[in-house]
C-alpha cells in the first residue's frame, strides 16, 4: 500500500506492519476455526442497498441520541482491552480520538490505563464495560464508574469464561497489567502457562453469574445497563424482563464462541423480540460506512467499532483513532446521500435486501 490509508482496512495493514506479531495476532484473532470471524465481515457483503433517487440530499444529518446523549453519528468505540499494546498512550489516546469526533467511548475494565486516567483525560461521553466478574470486583467498578462520570455500564454477558484464541496460546501471549484490578486480585495468582490472558480471566470471572444477578447489579447502581452479547430473540426477551436499558447484538468480535452467526444476520430477530422497548446496538465486522447503513436499516440504533479503532491507534496513536472514525463517518454520510436518506431516521428496512430476499428474486 502506497501513501496514506484511504479506508479502514488499509489501517489494518499499517498496524500489522508496525505492531509486534504477537500483539497484532492478539488484536486480529478470533476463536478456534475463526469461522465467525470471517462471517462477521462476509455477511455484510451479502446484503445489498436499495437506494432512492432524486431526494434532496444537500444536507445530511448523521447525529443521533443514545441513552439521552447526543452524538455526531451512530458510532460508538467498542470496549476493547489492552490498548497500550497498540500504542504507549493506550486508552487515553483512544478516548481523546473519540472525543475529537464527538462519539461515545466504550472503556473496557481490562484497559491498560485506569478508568480514572481515561476519565480525566477527555470530554467524551464514556460507558464502562464490565464482565460478570466476582461481586467484589463489580462493586468496586460501579463505585468508580459513578465517581468518574461514566454514563452507562456495558455488561458483557458472553464471557463466563474466555474463548480459545489459538494464536495467543501458541504465541504465549502475556496480558499487560490491567491496572483497574490493582488491589482487587493478586497478580501473582495469574499463571504464565500458555496464554496468561486466559489465566487472568479465570481469576476474575464468576461463571455462576446469571439472569437473576442483573437485579443485584441494578440494586448497586443508578447507571443504565446495556447488555452485550445477545444473539437470539429468546435472550433479548429475557434482557428486557431483567430491565436493561439497551441491548448490544455482539459475538465479541468472534473471540468467544466460534460458529455463532454473523451479528448482522441475527439483528432482525433481536429487533423483533425487543419491539422498540429499548435501543438495540450491534457490533462485529463493521468496516465501511455501508455496513453501518445496513445495520441501521435492519433496526440498529448505532454500531460499535472494535478492531479498526485499535488499528488506527496502533498505526498513528490518537490521530489514527480520529482518522478511522472520521473515515467511517464520511463513508456513512456519502452512503446516506447516495441512498437518498437525509437523517438516520430516514434509513428504513426497505433500504436493504438481505441475502434471503435476493434469493427470492426481489432484486
Ligand atoms: C483485541 C480485542 C479485545 C477485546 N476486549 C474486549 C473486552 O475487554 N470486553 C468486551 O466486552 N469486548 C471486548 N472485545 C470485543 C469488542 O467489544 C467488540 O465486540 C468487537 O471487537 C466487535 O467486532 P469488530 O472488532 O469486528 O469491530 C474485544 C475485541 C478485540 C478485538
Ligand atoms: C481478560 C481480557 C479479556 C479481553 C477480551 O475480552 C478479549 O480479548 O476479547
UniProtKB/TrEMBL annotation:
Domain of life: Eukaryota
Record-listed FMN binding positions: 129, 156, 228, 250, 283-287, 306-307
Domain FMN hydroxy acid dehydrogenase per the UniProt entry, residue ranges: 1-357
Organism: Solanum pinnatisectum (tansyleaf nightshade)
Keywords: Flavoprotein, FMN, Oxidoreductase, Peroxisome
Protein name: (S)-2-hydroxy-acid oxidase
Molecular function terms, GO-annotated: (S)-2-hydroxy-acid oxidase activity; FMN binding
Main location class: other
PANTHER family from the UniProt entry: (S)-2-HYDROXY-ACID OXIDASE, S -2-HYDROXY-ACID OXIDASE-RELATED
Entry annotated with the keyword Flavoprotein: yes
Lineage: Eukaryota, Viridiplantae, Streptophyta, Embryophyta, Tracheophyta
Record's GO cellular component terms: peroxisome
Residues at the active site: 252
Reaction catalysis annotation: a (2S)-2-hydroxycarboxylate + O2 = a 2-oxocarboxylate + H2O2; 2-hydroxyoctanoate + O2 = 2-oxooctanoate + H2O2; 2-hydroxyhexanoate + O2 = 2-oxohexanoate + H2O2
Similarity comment text for this entry: Belongs to the FMN-dependent alpha-hydroxy acid dehydrogenase family.
InterPro entries named in the record: Aldolase_TIM, Alpha-hydoxy_acid_DH_FMN, FMN-dep_DH, FMN_HAD, FMN_hydac_DH_AS
UniProt-annotated binding residues for glyoxylate: 252, 255
PROSITE patterns according to UniProt: FMN_HYDROXY_ACID_DH_1, FMN_HYDROXY_ACID_DH_2
EC number: 1.1.3.15
Subcellular location as annotated: Peroxisome
Co-factor(s): FMN
GO biological process: defense response to bacterium; hydrogen peroxide biosynthetic process
Amino acid at each position: 500500500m502506497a501513501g496514506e490509508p484511504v479506508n479502514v482496512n488499509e489501517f489494518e495493514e499499517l498496524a500489522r506492519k508496525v505492531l509486534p506479531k504477537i500483539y497484532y495476532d492478539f488484536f486480529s484473532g478470533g476463536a478456534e476455526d475463526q469461522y465467525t470471524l470471517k462471517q462477521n465481515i462476509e455477511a455484510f457483503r451479502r446484503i445489498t442497498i436499495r437506494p432512492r433517487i432524486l431526494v434532496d440530499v444537500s444536507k445530511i444529518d448523521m447525529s443521533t441520541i443514545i441513552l439521552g446523549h447526543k452524538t455526531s453519528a451512530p458510532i460508538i468505540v467498542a470496549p476493547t482491552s489492552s490498548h497500550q499494546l497498540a500504542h504507549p498512550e493506550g486508552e487515553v489516546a483512544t478516548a481523546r480520538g473519540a472525543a475529537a469526533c464527538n462519539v461515545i467511548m466504550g472503556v473496557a475494565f481490562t484497559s491498560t490505563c485506569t478508568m480514572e486516567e481515561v476519565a480525566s483525560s477527555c470530554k467524551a461521553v464514556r460507558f464502562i464495560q464490565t464482565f460478570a466478574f466476582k461481586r467484589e470486583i463489580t462493586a468496586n467498578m460501579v463505585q468508580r464508574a459513578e465517581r468518574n462520570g461514566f454514563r452507562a455500564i456495558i455488561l458483557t454477558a458472553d464471557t463466563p469464561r474466555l474463548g480459545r484464541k489459538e494464536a495467543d496460546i501458541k504465541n504465549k501471549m502475556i496480558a499487560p497489567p490491567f491496572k483497574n484490578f490493582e488491589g482487587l486480585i493478586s497478580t501473582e495468582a495469574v499463571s504464565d502457562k500458555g496464554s496468561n490472558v486466559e489465566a487472568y480471566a479465570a481469576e476474575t470471572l464468576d461463571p455462576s453469574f446469571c439472569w437473576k444477578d442483573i437485579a443485584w447489579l441494578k440494586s448497586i447502581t443508578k447507571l443504565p445497563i446495556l447488555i452485550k452479547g445477545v444473539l437470539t430473540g429468546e435472550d433479548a426477551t429475557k434482557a428486557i424482563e431483567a430491565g436493561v436499558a439497551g441491548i448490544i447484538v455482539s459475538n465479541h468480535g468472534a473471540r468467544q464462541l466460534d460458529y455463532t452467526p454473523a451479528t448482522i444476520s441475527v439483528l432482525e430477530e433481536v429487533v423483533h423480540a425487543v419491539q422498540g422497548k429499548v435501543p438495540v446496538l450491534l457490533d462485529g465486522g463493521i468496516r465501511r460506512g455501508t455496513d453501518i447503513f445496513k445495520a441501521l436499516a435492519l433496526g440498529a440504533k448505532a454500531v460499535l467499532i472494535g478492531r479498526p479503532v485499535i488499528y488506527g491507534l496502533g498505526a498513528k496513536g490518537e490521530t489514527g483513532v480520529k482518522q478511522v472514525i472520521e473515515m467511517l463517518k464520511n463513508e456513512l454520510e456519502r452512503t446516506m446521500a447516495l441512498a437518498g436518506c437525509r437523517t438516520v431516521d430516514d434509513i428504513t428496512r426497505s433500504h436493504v435486501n438481505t441475502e434471503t430476499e435476493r434469493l427470492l428474486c426481489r432484486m
